[in-house]
Amino acid sequence: ARKRSGKSMVERLAGELLDAANKRGATIKRREDVHKMAEANKAFAHYRW
Hints:
Elements: H1 9-21, H2 26-41
């Protein structure tokens, strides 16, 4: 919510929550990126470095 332009933190947080509920926005993109990285690294999970 900090990266959003808006008048107050309350408005930015409300916008972030609405975007999350509608499955859009920066939070959802970050979640998808994290899941992609986890899926890509799954093949290496059994190695003990």
